[in-house]
Backbone:
């Protein structure tokens, strides 16, 4: 069994993953290393691979140019970092940064609207830091799962780009993007997903994810489980199954299938 321990804030965390044996005794911990400080591991999800490694994620406050989305040249964002860690030694075997591969323009949040909303909260005394500062980084990507694909590469889900990315496990290159503003696949309307979580390849070759579909819990939409067939030659995606609740019930955040 594994569990996360550490502080959390606004949808992400900073801590470590604790592993227990069949006597419920903690026998080791896994946390970030390499270019990152220890205890920066996020709480969304982890995967233990067949190679006795663990895939973990981290939200890393990073300075970057936000002028393309209406921000400043020296703005601050949460970079999404993936690391593959050797469980026994703690060695970082693989590291990937969203900022190195996915531009901030692929984020679906309107930066200027979010900035104005944050300013309103500051004026109301609800918060005290401007958006895109070191104290309040702009979260353009919001990683929430990383899993091993059936060809041993990686699948990454990013809530705030509405996309799933397939990564080359050796080079970190993006092999394809499914969904969002830069999709390599043609998706019919019924296959379009938004604010999703937990993307993984099933044993039958289909891709399964949880399509939150609604940003806010009071939106008049229903979240669903979604099973997609991907044709990676024709670059098309189609719905195999959608799993709907008996009555409309939106999950504004979190959950999986």
Residues:
């Amino acid at each position: 069994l594994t569990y996360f321990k550490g502080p959390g804030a606004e949808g992400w965390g900073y801590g470590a993953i604790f592993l227990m044996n069949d006597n419920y005794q903690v026998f080791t911990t896994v946390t970030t290393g390499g270019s990152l400080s220890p205890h920066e591991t996020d709480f969304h999800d982890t995967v233990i691979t067949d190679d006795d490694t663990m895939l973990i994620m981290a939200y890393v406050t990073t300075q970057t140019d936000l002028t393309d989305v209406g921000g400043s040249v020296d703005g601050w964002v949460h970079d999404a970092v993936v690391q593959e860690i050797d469980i026994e030694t703690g060695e970082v075997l693989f590291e990937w940064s969203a900022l190195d591969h996915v531009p901030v323009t692929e984020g679906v949040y309107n930066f200027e609207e979010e900035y104005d909303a944050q300013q309103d909260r500051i004026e109301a005394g609800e918060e005290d830091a401007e958006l895109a500062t070191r104290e309040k980084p702009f979260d353009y990507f919001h990683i929430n799962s990383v899993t091993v694909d059936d060809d041993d590469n990686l699948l990454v889900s990013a809530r705030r780009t509405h996309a799933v990315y397939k990564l080359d496990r050796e080079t970190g290159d993006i092999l394809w993007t499914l969904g969002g503003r830069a999709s390599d696949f043609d998706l019919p309307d019924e296959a379009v997903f938004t604010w999703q979580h937990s993307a993984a390849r099933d044993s039958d070759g289909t891709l399964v994810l949880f399509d939150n579909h609604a940003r806010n819990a009071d939106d008049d939409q229903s979240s669903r489980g979604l099973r997609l067939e991907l044709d990676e030659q024709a670059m098309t995606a189609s719905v195999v199954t959608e799993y709907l609740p008996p009555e409309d019930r939106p999950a504004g955040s979190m959950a999986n299938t």
In short: The mean pLDDT is 95. Helices lie at 111-123.
